[in-house]
Write a structure and sequence with these properties.
CATH class of the largest domain: Mainly Beta
Strand content: 15-25%
Strand order of the largest sheet: 7-16-9-10-11-12
Shape: elongated
Radius of gyration: 32 Å
Number of helices: 9
CATH topology of the largest domain: Jelly Rolls
Order of helices and strands: HEEHHEEEHEHHHHHEEEEEEEEEE
CATH superfamily of the largest domain: SPRY domain
Number of domains: 3
Helix content: 25-40%
Structural class: alpha+beta
Distance between the termini: 63 Å
Number of strands: 16
Largest sheet: 6 strands, antiparallel
CATH architecture of the largest domain: Sandwich
């Protein structure tokens, strides 16, 4: 339904979406103008390329910076349109029977000229109603932009947690397989400990899965609330001055309060349990790996691949510092073609590191990419203060606590097993199971800055 203001405005000043006068108008590349809030709400859930609501011209992408041109025409303010609305009871002074044209900043009331000079208001600050209304409209628009920014952040958070949510059951099941594979190697009396470990791991996995689901649900609900308050702010902008001034306080408070409680994406993590006798068993196969200093090339492709892991799609502009010469990759002097071997690497407090084994021919390649085949690596990747663990190949995240200090590496060549051990906790980090090795394997170490 058209508002009273709309009936007084020329058609070129009317948004074809909301059928009301423009709120924060923008011009698209095709020349049609719309309210910014109207386009935000219209394009919010568009799956295909967004297009102009009038001529259906396709926009390059849903990005106002690229699809919307500069404001070519500044629309006149409400006060510049030759249109006078009928005076309502709220606008008419009951004492002097004249229109209230002033707003008292002290007690937030509307006054006529005579009342503004009365002893009761003589010491108060008074401003024209239209001036105050425009000021509040500017604040409303700022709140709307802030709300929309928070809504987009909430959508990104939903996508992030949903991706984890989709693979969580598979990850928990895979981790149960990895943990279960360790226990047949120890004595039979550890079967009770194994069963308890797996039961708690399964229960913990279900609890975290439920928390992830609730996390997604809360963010979806917050998205709806943010949209609702956004629409309320837009409707408030379109109200007459008197109505807007009476309702703006409560709506603004709710808008600001809601933005303080945006739910953040959950970072799931499973507990790590010590496996009795594991280190004692592995120490029976201990070897001492020395570094081959003849192979010391700084392969840019490797460090660039690591930075791609560090920079998520929402942080593509993260600064990228080139790897220093002291943090170049190193290889073990030994190669393994048979038997069982165990060694330990001290990563200390390094924020980013890579350890493991690789096909010997990989050491001479100039395109050492982390998605290459025949590499069996454990990576710790740091983004700000958040640490993530990955293993290759294929690239797989591990939602457990970041290991520090000494990390053990165990190779059983004939059985096709490579395991990574948290020495301090005597717990399994991850392992590669049932691989088939038909080529020499060389230890690999890369530690970044602390």
């Amino acid at each position: 339904m058209e508002s009273a203001f709309t009936q007084c405005f020329p058609s070129e000043f009317i948004c074809s979406i909301c059928k009301d006068n423009f709120t924060d108008p923008v011009t698209m590349s095709c020349g049609h103008r719309f309210c910014t809030p109207c386009l935000c709400l219209l394009w919010e859930d568009v799956q295909t390329a967004p297009c102009c609501p009038v001529c259906k011209a396709v926009s390059p992408k849903m990005d106002f910076k690229s699809t919307i041109l500069a404001k070519e025409h500044v629309l006149p303010t409400r006060g510049s349109v030759v249109c006078q609305l009928p005076s309502s009871a709220k606008q008419l002074c009951s004492i002097h029977q004249v229109i209230k044209l002033y707003f008292c900043q002290t007690d937030k009331s509307l006054l006529c000229l005579f009342c503004s000079h009365s002893p009761e208001h003589a010491t108060h600050e008074h401003y024209p109603v239209k001036q105050v209304a425009e000021h509040y409209r500017e604040n409303l628009l700022m709140q709307m932009k802030s709300i929309w920014k928070k809504k987009k952040e909430n959508q990104r958070n939903i996508k992030k947690v949903t991706n984890i949510f989709r693979v969580w059951e598979g990850f928990v099941n895979l981790r149960m397989v990895m943990i279960g594979a360790e226990y047949p190697k120890v004595c039979q009396y550890l079967q009770e400990e194994k069963q308890k470990h797996l039961e708690i791991l399964a229960i913990e996995g279900k609890i975290v899965f439920q928390r992830l689901r609730r996390n997604v649900a809360r963010m979806v609900h917050m998205g709806k609330l943010l949209r609702r308050i956004y629409e309320e702010l837009k409707e408030l902008c379109l109200k007459a001055d008197v109505d807007m001034l009476q309702d703006v306080g409560d709506t603004m408070k709710r808008s600001q309060l809601m933005q303080l409680y945006i739910p953040q994406p959950m970072d799931p993590q499973l507990s790590t349990w010590a496996i009795t006798g594991m280190l004692e068993r592995l120490n029976n196969f201990r070897v001492y790996v020395t570094l081959d200093h003849k192979i010391r090339n700084c392969h840019v492709a490797l460090t660039e691949d690591l930075r791609r892991l560090q920079c998520s799609p929402d942080h593509q502009d993260m600064p990228r510092n080139p790897a220093s010469s002291e943090n170049t990759p190193s290889w073990g002097a030994q190669t393994f073609t048979t038997g069982k071997h165990y060694w330990e690497v001290n990563v200390g407090n390094s924020r980013t590191w890579i350890i493991g084994l690789c096909k010997e021919s990989w050491t001479s390649r100039n395109d050492m990419l982390l998605n290459s085949e025949d590499i069996f690596l454990l990576l710790c990747v740091s983004v700000e203060d958040h640490f993530s663990l990955f293993s290759t190949f294929p690239l797989l995240p591990h939602y457990i606590q970041r290991p520090q200090g000494w990390i053990g590496v165990f190779l059983d060549y004939e059985c096709g097993i490579i395991s990574f051990i948290n020495v301090a906790r005597s717990s399994l980090i991850c392992n590669f199971l049932s691989r088939s090795f038909s080529f020499p394997l060389r230890p690999f170490i890369w530690c970044g800055p602390k």
